[in-house]
Design brief:
alpha/beta, six-stranded mixed beta sheet, six-stranded parallel beta sheet, 27 helices, 16% strand, binds adenosine-5'-triphosphate, DNA helicase IV
Amino acid sequence: MTGNDIDREIDIEQKYVAGLYARVDALREAAAARLVAARRAGDREAVAVWQAEVARLEAVEHGLCFGRLDMHDGRRVYIGRLGLFRDEGGEPLLVDWRVPVARVFYTATATDPHGVRRRRRITTRGRTVIALNDELLDADGAGISGLVGEAALLAAVTTERTGRMQDIVTTLQAEQDRIIRHESNGVLVVEGGPGTGKTAVALHRVAYLLYTRPHLRTRGVLVVGPSRIFLDYIGQVLPGLGENSVVTATIADLWPGVEGSRADPPETAELKGRSIMAERLAAAVRSKVQIPDTPVEIEFEQEVLRLHPDTCGRAVQKARRTGLPHNQARLVFQREIVDVLARRLVEGMEAVVLTDTGEAIDGGSPDGRLGEADLRALAAAGVVLGQDDGGPRTLLDETDRAGLRCSLLADTGVQAALDGLWPPLTPERVVSDLLGEPADGWSAADIPLLDEAATLIGHGNDRATFGHVVVDEAQELSEMAWRMLMRRCPAKSMTIVGDLAQTGNPAGTSSWDRVLLPHVRDRRQLTRLTVNYRTPAEIMAATADLLAAHHPATPPPRSVRSAGETPWRARTTRADLPTVIAGLASTHTDGQLAIITPAIHIGPLAAALSLATPPDLTGKVVLLTPEQAKGLEFDSVLIADPATILTTPLGHNDLYVAMTRATRRLGIVHPGPPPAELSAMRELQP
Ligand SMILES: Nc1ncnc2c1ncn2[C@@H]1O[C@H](COP(=O)(O)OP(=O)(O)OP(=O)(O)O)[C@@H](O)[C@H]1O
């Protein structure tokens, strides 16, 4: 197209796009008016509905329309963030990217055009069309790279990072689209190397599922991420796609009231994460129930009641047969014991009234009437007798017996005896009895144990469950964390994304089957992403020795581009490390820089560079540990002291994570000689 042609086309699209915004404005006005009316009427349900609608319409302001398809049959379809019609039930003006018609926007290629003649990408700033990018799918040679909309894609992946993830709805690739629209109702595992878009795909899948399976709006969708930092990083993606109802959480957030941010030593974390802990906790809870060897004596209203071990054993059995969790089964046990005690008391009283020989003793009368002493005993026990016509009752009726049972239940002596036999438990007590009182608060690895204990004792049965759960950086979850998460998703409908070569948690996984099979058997499907959109080819080449040494069977993802910058390493001394890093950071001018370093250097480096900890992801220079850097990306990355990163059991994976965070440049500063896996990198003098 000539310059004039382009201007003319931009004019045409500008008019069309302006019409779309006018339609959105009209819908917004109508929704705002309905919201006001609902508020006035005090109709809470309607308020929630219209609030969500207003938010949805606000969210699509940026990039409302981003594509156009010209079909061979003459149809023209505009693609955008939501569907718009000229009027109610009228002609479609804009098609939501999630409907089937829009799919070809992401999948059509020159070799398989699906009836598409031209794919046009429309770039807007605010409400103004600023650029168009056309692909003619019937032109020779188009689409050879296998990428859909290559120019727009490369523009997207090379823009400066901001510390906040953006949606990729305008440039989704075919292999990503297939996963987003995957029909699986069970567990879909998405595996792929660094930068292959796993996070992006998982979030777009959420938007797709909410659109195509509306019941999920009421059942709820949960997105689990490795850290709060990460959840902040991805926090804008779903709202940008018009979805505001999704809950995001770390595993620790799912246990409210406990921070769980403390890290255990690796061996302890690994141990606490094993599924055997579930059996140990179950055994610990069972062991709290005591069947005594000798009769238990309970003092009640100046009487001594005796509970025989067999009686206790029968009550325990009956309570256990219900299959209820510990604290609920305790109620059954308690009822059994109190029934026995109440029966004893009643029998005792009636025995006073009528002896074997039929004689009345203790103030009772031969016709079976209760005597004065009996009445006094009952009154002392809080039993209020119903009034017979004119005289005392001869027998305890059901109301009287119920009253007696209440009195027994309220009695501190009886309660103490019951607690001794079947104590009520809290999750904290179960876990600390098993592992010892945590000295400085619960650790991250304790959270799934507390949750397991809560399930065993029936505490917190009202915790939220979700219709679909997305797990990002899923390789980090321990077997115990999987158990916890599976309880949050009764339908076991999940999207799980991760990379086994990036596992940093010693309790994390090295096999999807190992963690998933016990929960979902064959209701799982594995899919793979193969193209790295983040990390340039030069940086991936620098990771080759590391990956080959520790994950020889894992193919590195294919980088979509080269950055033209060779990663480097530079030697220094331990003492000079902060000065060298500070010097490099101070001369950095181009885009966002992340300094990734083991926890021991965070304090000194934060002081030397006046940087915030925990990090502010939107800062020009960001200081983090490899663990905190998980899932994030930056224009440039500087790794300080790789050898110390490698000293932890899965340090090689942490180093791989750190090295693959950059979209452009990577530098590594190592005190002393370089780790063998990095020795082939170009060496610089800092
Ligand atoms: N189709 C696409 N169009 C534009 N950008 C894309 C596309 N796919 C991925 N990206 C970008 O590539 C980068 C990496 O994506 P993402 O973080 O989802 O990868 P990941 O597989 O989760 O990475 P990691 O495992 O390393 O955390 C992001 O900036 C994302 O926006």
